[in-house]
Amino acid sequence: MATITKFEDIEAWQKARVLAKEIFIFSNETVLNKDFRFRDQINAAVGSIMDNIAEGFERGGRLEFINFLTIAKGSCAEVRSQLYRVVDRQYITEEKFSELYKLTEDIGNMLGGWIKYLNQSEHKGNKFKNRVDAKL
Prior knowledge:
The protein has four helices and no strands. By secondary structure, the chain is an all-alpha fold. It has a single domain (9-120), classed as 23S rRNA-intervening sequence (de novo design (two linked rop proteins), Up-down Bundle), CATH 1.20.1440.60. The chain is elongated, with a radius of gyration of 17 Å.
C-alpha cells in the first residue's frame, strides 16, 4: 500500500465524499426534502462515513484507525439500507438507486480491505512510532 499522508488521499474517503454529495443533491431536489427526519438521517449517516475515515486517520494510531474504519463501514451499511427506503418511497429511480447502492458496496469493500490490512500490520501508527516501552 502506498504511503498516505493525509486523509483526503484515501480513495474510500474520496468515494464517500462523492456519495455524500449525490445524496445531498437528491435529498434537496426531490420530495425527500419534505421528509425532514429521513432527509436529515440519511445525510448524517453518509457524512459519518467520510468523517470517521478522516478522524480515524488523523488519530495516528492503528487500533484507533481500525475502530473508526469499522464505524464508517457500519455507516456505509446504514446508508445502503436507507437507500432501500428511498427507492421504496419513490424518491429516486431504480437506476439511481443501483448507482448509489454500488457506490456504498465499493466503499464498504475498500474499508473492509483497509481493516484487514491494518489488523495484519505490525505498524502501530505514527503517534506510537517513537514511543519506547517503559519498564515497570
